[in-house]
Queue: 3 jobs
Job 1
Amino acid sequence: MASMARFYDGETAQVHDVSVRTTTNELVIFRLADAGILARWPIGELAVLGDVQHEVTPPIVRKGFEARLVVDDPELSRQLASLVPQLAPLAGTRAPPVQRIAAFGATFAVLVGLFWLAVDYGTEYAAPLLPYSLQVKLGESVFDELTADKDECHGKAGLKALNDLANRLAKAADYPHEIAVHVMDGGPVNAFTLPGGILVFYSDLFEQAKDGAQVAGVMAHEIGHVVHYHPMKGLVRQYGIELLVKLVSGGYSDLLSTLASGGNVLLALRNGRAFERDADATGVKLLEKLEVRADGIASFFEQMLAKEPKDSAAVAGIWSSHPPTTERINATRRPSSGTPPFTDAEWKAVRNVCK
Amino acid sequence: MAAATTEPDLTPSRPLYDGKLGELYVIYLRHLVLMLLTLGWSRFWGRTRIRRYLWNHFAILGDRFEYRGRGIELMVGFVLALLMIAGWGGVMYLVWIYVFHEKPFASFGLFDIFSLSVALIGFPLAYVGHYAGLRYRLSRTRWRGIRCGMAGSAWRYGVSATFLTFANAITFQLLTPVVSVNLARPRIANTRFGSLPFVFSGGAGDIYGRYVGYYFLNIIAWLVALGIFFTAIGGAVGGLGISFTEEEILKLLTRPSLRAILLVAALAIGLYLVFSLLILPLRCWWQAYLFRYLVSHSRAGNVLFATAISTRQMWGFLVLNYLIVVLTLGLGWPWVMHRTLRLIAAELWLYGAPDGASIRQPTDLGPRYGEGLLDMFDVSGV
């Protein structure tokens, strides 16, 4: 058996047109021009680099050597593959791509759909399962970041009153962990929740609040976020979608990630609005369960709206992280019946927590 | 008596690319499926398979290239870069604890320090990664059984590139020819095919005249494009007697109707057309010129290179490829790679053939791991 192939000696960049011959224990490579033997490779040391799915002509090598034999002739490849078991990869053929593209394309589309569902709905169930110590650590590190340039207030009686109410509300929702309330000096008139049951209030909120029921309303709303694990769910969803975009782009391009980050922001805002509605409803329910005045949430929103008649959430529409305030007032309006959330002494201590 | 001279062999040839888009898509879609199943960890092997396909379907003088990198090498490179960043994070943590923590002047957090420092080191490191990644890919590339390689220091390149880019930014891009030539030189002149070094003989002075023309034409084109765009919008709004109150504008932005979305899309297309007709052709004209210059001033031994790539072809390379990736949400990547290799095969001319007997296999094997920094800073293509 003799036919043409190409031989690279591995030491120089010379190309030799060659013929090859197999014996029982050797592959002999001859120069085509003068039949001089260029190499004798023991059959047992032969190997094929690569495969025919990726390479047109996968080179044959002698293990541990740099030289290569490239067989262009398909017939010779088939013969070598049938004669030498190690050269079997040379006999492979490429299947027509259409069917394989359809199969991989369909699998890809299904996986993208499943991934999306897992991220969008799976977090609902998975976020609470994350080790709580991890959630606390994450919450504490974010707390350090967000409050690095703020002074924390340490009024003992005020903090005790706030923590007591927060933990009563959380217990009413069967939340199994301790809540830690922090108060930062100054504004804005706001409060927020971090992973690991960390609640942060700004003291301006206590100054602006008309009574303890309003602070209790805001706190019940924040406890609503805590018991639904909203901070963790938000984080997981955002990173999940980012990961999906990265995977779909094949890991090649940050261009798509940049484009997708806009969509991700809108998605996060949509999630944000849904979370706020959940937290409002849960907050009211918890206050009612404890038979504490539940009119604070709506009255606090009304007060804010009176101060700033232009409802920024309604104006911002799809760009808002919160639902329109009037919608929230209507959804949370309750009578002023029930016990006050704080005693007079407690309410005084809360207002003086930074003094 | 005249000395005997031999005419150099300058037989022209072009590379051959015989890859098939369908086959490339099979490999790419398989890669995407595995990416989703492994949450991205298969990308090192996916890239390797794509490179094997592309390299081996590209031939010069009838001899195909080989890519012999391995996925595990890329993964180890990535993990090492990850550890490096983690180490840097540790250093920043110590700086935060011992220098800034609970100090009245520190109105920022640990995360701020870390982000800022990574952004600062990330810029030069991306260049270092770019050079080191090129070195890795060349070291895994063989032609006629001989390994390619790259000499020079990636760190020196990173420092030089950072300095040049910064200097160019503060001189309003007037140093672009200096930057282009001085960043191309180390990449070309340090490239080796076996024992054969590439040579680059270009100089920024050669291309400054053309660049200055491009620079001022570019300014004029921007002014004209903006003028046309605003005149068109003003004319349309005025001509139709449309006026917006503040509330209407807010509503348009916050609750866009389908009509408004279509209008914005039409405006975006109009903007694209105006800019693409005036600005991008100029940019492509300059890039095509620069590319022709860099190629024609490079050689490998007695092999000379040349290209006649046109502004239109550069448009296809820079603009259409970009649009393909964006409009297909990334699924057009194989098509872009395929188009690019076809362009190279069609437009790169080689004159002469290397003296194979004098080119030896290099003794060094190149870096053991690859592309960690490139992967880390997400600047890696195939």
Job 2
Amino acid sequence: MTNKKKSSGMPPAQAKPQPQGAVPAEAKVRIFVPRDAAALSMGANAVAESIAAEAKKRNAKIEIVRNGSRGMLWLEPLVEVETGKGRVAYGPVAAGDVAGLFEASFLTGGNHKLRHGLTDEIPYFKNQERLTFARCGITDPLSIADYRAHGGFAGLTKAIAMEPADIVAEVTTSGLRGRGGAGFPTGIKWKTVLDTRAEQKYICCNADEGDSGTFADRMLMEGDPFCLIEGMTIAGIAVGATHGYVYIRSEYPHAVATMREAIRIATEANWLGSTIQGSPYDFELHVRVGAGAYICGEETSMLDSLEGKRGLVRYKPPLPAIEGLFGKPTVINNVLSLASVPIIIDKGGVYYRDFGVGRSRGTLAFQLAGNIKQGGLVERAFGITARELIEGYGGGTASGRPIRAVQFGGPLGAYLPNSKLDTQMDYEAFVKEDAMVGHGGVVVFDDMVDMARQARFAMEFCAIESCGKCTPCRIGSVRGVEVIDRIIADENREANIELLQDLCVTMTDGSLCAMGGLTPMPVMSALRHFPDDFHRPAHAEAAE
Amino acid sequence: MSRPAENKIIEIPAGSEEWARAICAAHENRPDELLEIFHAVQHEIGFIPETVVAVVANALNISRADVYGVLSFYHDFRRAPAGRHVVKICRAEACQAMHSHEVCVHAEQRLGTKFGGTSADGEFTLEAVYCLGNCARSPAMMIDGNLFGCVDEKRFDAVIAGLDNEAAA
């Protein structure tokens, strides 16, 4: 199924005032060079500068739009040229390629070895179901005119005219579950906050996307920030909150800058602030920046961090929905949960629910990462198999070697072997495999991987990032590293494997939050599916 | 962030107690803005000096132990100045799958420091980071806030050489 929101042909011209004496807008060729951090990491700024310089030299009339990423990250920087037939893609473009592109008349979509034809027709992109990411990569992320021309603020406009309880009901109908990984039904969380009486309530967006193999939150904040703003504002109206916080990790400076700028623009245009668009609703949004603590992605730890404290995990109950930020009822949702709300309200909960399978409704933004040929973001309805994603979209490993293990759902998710890749991507099917879909992060490893090392790293990471409040996590992770070291060194190996399994049970059952509670998942899955790696001769390790 | 009081800060010598007080005031002396205050201090002078801890505790009306607790909890905050360039290399799973370990070993040799340290000439601080959100273009690194993807040993050297050229220019 192709993207339903996208219009074909020429997007509407932007309502930008032209400088005096400039040629009319239609005479300028619009060129898109992404501002997404992944594109910047491969030299997008240099490419944009080079295009501007080359155009000046040749007296070509162009307008460069710094869009978000389309999600085909292996092609970044992906430069697009707007033509009468649609946007033509070239990538990956290096600054050194620019003169050659002009020579090949890329301003009219001319042929070149980097040309991929119409962007919308590239199978990787065409065969997606883009609901949450409908605009990402297409619009200018900081243009409200562009946002509205592509369906933006339609959800909020509807929400303003709705009863708050009906908004919550619509979200419940959609079947949306927390996209941060835990998969808790969003509508139920909202209803709890709505039904809790308080003078002040809060909406907190968890944008502390710390898991390796995930970048969807970052892409959305950089590529379509108004969508998150709209979703949070709708949440505010739905539960009666007038203040919201976006907690973004400090490792994402580009997302921080884009969100701050988008909030400023939206406030100026009265899509945030007091009496939004003449309605009785007020909603103020603030950005808060984390400080390099992985644990602050845990919701109660994030609340403490937002309050200016050490990011220690809180006991539950009380639930944050009842006593959250500053002790007030608080909705805490992941970026993509909130960014899915505008389309749910605009098109209805039933429309969203019709995507997906079983109890996994809607779409998930799968992120193909690690050792993969065509890494990037693939938004598809739940139910696609892991193999379709990794081999179909991803094209297998980047190294060309066989796939040996894939970690799903971040550092706290399971490693599955190649033989399990026909598992359907939905919450319940993965639970049956003692794994989790989580936020849709997919990290591929080839046959060079040593799974005993990966298991050791899971424990090591937990030891580094544990908040330290509960013992199973704080001490268990350190002991876990030691025990795995002994297993690798072939010291009393079988007894230590048993000890490791026992330790994993203690951590799973006794930890306060998912950090200590789920660290055993990658460890145990490695042990279960790749026992050979825990039984290698010790001297092979020593030789490394 | 444009808060009215912040304009005044520029005239006060960075790092002084008065300057630290002005930063706190710009954040309305709110305890919940402690992380933002630390970010502002570190952005200006590169680390959080002891003197600032005392000033902040006073201004926010919280104990020095609490301020120190926050300072020591978060990996980002430094209590001593860093090198002229801060090199952060991702050591998490997606980058491991693309052999970031080899880049890490190479970086330690090339920069002349272990992870967590600063080179003897004060040029480079080398730090581990766990995910920069560039997992489809692994291995990833960040230098002074600029992100780089597909970093193998060769590209690492090229990027570092680029920094040296900048410095010479």
Job 3
Amino acid sequence: MSALELIQLASNIVFVALAAITIVAALRRPTRGNIDVALLFGSLGIVVLETRVQTALADVSPLWTISVSLLVMALPYFLLRLVNDFGHVAPRVRRAAEIGLLLSAVAIVLGGTPSPAPITLGLVAYFVVFATYAGVAFIPIARRTHGVTRRRMVAISFGSLVLGSALLVVAMPILIPDTAALSAALVQVLALVAALAWFVGFATPVALRRLWQEPELRAFLVRAAGLARLPDDSDVIEALQQGAGMTAGVTAAIGLWDQSHQVMRWVRDGEAIERGPGEFFAWPAFESGRTIFSADLSRERPQVAAAARDSRVEAAIAAPIKIESRRIGALVLYSERAPMFADDDIALAQLLAEQCAVVLESRRLAVEAAAARANELTARLKEDFMSAAAHDLKTPLTTLVAQAQTLERRMRSGKPADRAGVERIAREAKRLQHLVEEMLEASRIEQGALQLQRELVDVREIAAEVVARHPEAGRIRVEASGPASGLYDRLRLERLVENLVENAVKYSPPDAPIDVRLLRDGTELLLSVSDRGIGIARTDQERIFQRFERGGNVDDRSYPGTGLGLYICRGIAEGHGGRIWVESEIGTGSTFHVALPATEGAMN
Amino acid sequence: MDPALAADSGQSSRPERSAASPSGELTAREARPILIVDDDRSILETMSDLLHGEGYQVMTAADGQEALEAISRAPVSFVLLDMRMPRMDGWQFAKTARERGHRVPIIVMTAANDARRWAKEINADAYIAKPFDVETLLSLVKRFSERGRAN
């Protein structure tokens, strides 16, 4: 047996095997896709078998030859049917293929065997055009898809293009003399390559599917481990959908069951969708806890047929997402084309749904734990506040007690009271009073019971007075442009400016200048206090206005404080219908801005 | 039992030979000064006036940094140390002072509830909680000055 004959024998065996496999599959599961696959490979197998019989029997009837030729000419048509199952073939092209098939049949029957060269050339041209069409049509589909589906599309495209070239080789002896033997061998090889590529594409063996899915699945599992930590629920869902879709090579959707409203919540293209019981394909899967599959939604599921047509979905698998017996939601894999799915995709969908369940459950636990931590944090903040408040109160008390007792001792031993000592008592008593007032003020703000005593005041004056009173007035500049009078609560604004200036002094190096600016801007009066101090991290810039909260870079030992000052400032600003915010950079300094609505009285 | 006064028990209860008078008059000439460290100006002034009035020599510092400078300039009898201060706090001061080989006794004085724990943390010799009674402070100061002279 020559090498050529060996190749022929091998390829013939493969063709017959492919035919047998696909026919058995179609008989077991007669879906449209499976039937079309069986048609293509079955006819290929028959053609091969017939050719073998032909060569075995030296003498064959012309009828025999004609039937083989007809089957060969039917191949592009069967191929096109399959292409239509997987992708989309324009009706015009399908009609053209049908007409071409009819014309070929007529030409073969009338032309006799062997056909005259022009007819053969015409037949070859017909075959090559449609095989090439199929090959080219799959390129954009392959580009659009991913994972397993993309590889299948590439295989189909490749197979079709190889078949086209095989047919060109068939025509070779007509154009170039003495190449019949070479052409016969080449055709065998090319046809085998094409058939294998199609088989891989149209009827991917399970082992190969697994092999292709594995990297995506592995990537999904690796990513899934970190998903529970994403900040937002919808981010988690989106990442799961994307990962599941990539793994299965189709589109994936995840619905979460809302127990209190009895609806399934989906997100599609960033839009939230709610569906009640029975209103969506995955409902039976969710309800029964079993995975379901439909190859033809519009026929098999009348209740979702319209939705399926709208979103051009033909086939879908739905798997319940559950932790033990608790149902969380459902995972749906869907495709515009039915044959994208294979039996083992159902198992894959289950596996993906299980992973989703694990991620969503750990997400839930993480959220719960975070809430518990937040509660704990609030409690700790309160405790910190209590001890900071006690500390703050005890500091002036220390002087008060010690100084009073010292005076007492002096008087007992007949010395006069010293002036400095008495002044210290007065000063610390005042400070204590201020602290107590601050705590009361914070508590009033918290209860929403801040009552403003509005009167016509000049905020420029207030700022200047506060600064002048400050022991470090020398490094504080006040700048004002435009009128700054209005109906405000004088004492509250004093406290506001005092607190901001005090913070600026406290958190900046000694002698670093501090700027207080006042500006009338349209309907608002803008007050700002800038320092060149330690600054506030971006993440802290909202938080510091809350009660008991202080900047993360504020060491409690170096900068004692209650964390009430800015809370009170915000309360006063908002009590006036205004706002307070901060612009700051760590290490560079901070500028606190207060915007108060300008009032009628400000028009002078 | 006075919770404000602790540590240092058992040790150094040895009576001083040249027994000091309660007013401490004889200390002033020879004894090293007491260093008071506190960021609160009023407390510093009050304590300084009080101890001066009792005949002690006193130095003051507003934070750990100043205190370190003070003890490295001239030896002091002991340190009355506030813990929470800007620039350099009590912990840092105690650590640095020990690292530099100063074996000066330290009395922690703080308004925090953790006075005892903090005193332990920095291996202090005693602690006193703010606000304190003048009598308590004076007896503590007296005990430590006698100890200082005994050494």
